[in-house]
Every structure is written in structure tokens, then in C-alpha cells.
Design goal:
The protein is of the alpha+beta class and 267 residues long. It has one domain: Jelly Rolls (Sandwich), CATH 2.60.120. The chain is 22% helix and 23% strand. The chain is built from five helices and twelve strands. Strands 1-2-9-4-7 form a five-stranded antiparallel sheet. α1 (4-14) runs antiparallel to α2. It is globular, with a radius of gyration of 18 Å. The relative contact order is 0.20.
Length: 267
Amino acid sequence: MLSSDEVSQFLAELAKLNPEGGFAPSVSANIALPYHVSFLDSNQDYRRGVFKLVSDYFASKVREVLPDYHILNTSLIVKPPRHGLFPVHHDWSFLADHAGKCMTIWCPLIDTNTENGTIHLLPGSNKVLKEIQTPKIPCCFHGFREDIVERWLQPIPTLAGHALLWDNHMIHWSGKNHTDDPRIAVQITCIPVHSQPVYFYYNEQRPYQFELIDADQEFWLRTDHQELFTRQPHWKSLGYVPNENRSLSITEFSELLRKRTGSCRTE
């Protein structure tokens, strides 16, 4: 998606954005991570700067790869040297029409491999998972995360400027950066141009449902991530949907994976 010259230019412009604490791991009252995620930075100007920079370099390329999609939000993810283990997960849900496909583009700005924390994917897992993923609720496979890493995930070494594209329901993971250089990558959430983007707000007092909050590009740019944990009075509600998420056992998960993908890969 980016030439080597574009990668160099992007990195030079990125260095001018000056996030709070540099590109140190993201820490707040609700979350402490061993890596930096611009999406979680408290500086709105910095978040907007990353969004503009990514859009300037990637928007036209996204239209070439996904002609009926546009960018909803973006994030810069930096794994510091000797840090950055990312838990196995799948991405948040962003579409009111849960049958619609929300896509993720992941583009490293250095060559990635298993040493510096490249992405590992579980091919076909997007056909297994249809749950809604949002803050404050565990994923259906939270009881056997490590088994997924050990048994099913496949590393995808990726060159700088090249990109991976996956359905948001795809299970993925990346390990610790064992090198002395930061591992820098761009992540882009793309949605169909005529779709309704939402934030699925989960209220512990009403665990049987999610509230649909109107959440366009501007919502993600102006909203501090800590606000996502508490219902904000200015949010525009679009109604409610039932919470049909449920935990799976590793046996159920393995069987679903086999039935829907034909895979029984265990090592």
C-alpha cells in the first residue's frame, strides 16, 4: 500500500505529531498496555493528527482495495523495544447492521516477523464468531486464549508498506517485540460507505442488551477513550439490540471451527 519512499515520508511526518509521553505505552485509569495506541491517547489534537496523516496517505489506496468502503477510524500502534505483548482478540464491532462486514487494514512501517511482533491470524475464525465485541465484556473465548495462541494461530511476516486485510471478526494476536527497535504499524477500520456506524454501549445494570450510539468519524476523534466506559449525556441513541453473546468452551470452539472452515489444525 505504501512505497518505501512513502513509508519514509510518513515516518518523518509522524515524528512531528509529538504525542503525550512520546510513543510510550498507553496508560490510564481504565487501561494499562505494554504498547502505544494513538486511539487511546488523551490528546485530541494528536488523535486528529494521526487520523489526518493516515487519511492523507491511505484514503485513495483504501478506495482501490475496498471501493465501496471508507475509513471510520485509525490508530498508530507502537510496540517499544522488548515490550508490546498483545492479547489474542478480535476487533470491536462498529456496524448497526451486524451482518455487514467491517474490515481492518494493518500496515507495518517496518518489516515485521515473529521476533518483533508481527500479526498472527486464525484463518476462518471470522466464520465462527458473530458476537458483539465492545469494552467491558469478555470475548467468547476468554477462557482459553492461550490455547488459541498455541494451537491455531499462524504468523504472517509482513514487509514495511505492505498490508494485511481482515474481517473484524478474525481472531488475531501479536507477540512481544524482542528487538531493540520499535515496531510501528498503522491500523485502519473501514466500513461500507452507506452503513450506520455505532458504538455498542454496554451497561452492567442491563447486561441483556446493548445501546446503539451514533458513532461516526467525529465521534471517535472527539471522544476520549475513558468516556466510553460511562454513558455520556450528549450521545445520540439509535435504540437497543439484545446481548446474545455467550462464552464457548474450547471443545465447542474447535467443533465450530471444524464445521465452518473444515480446519482441525492443532499445531
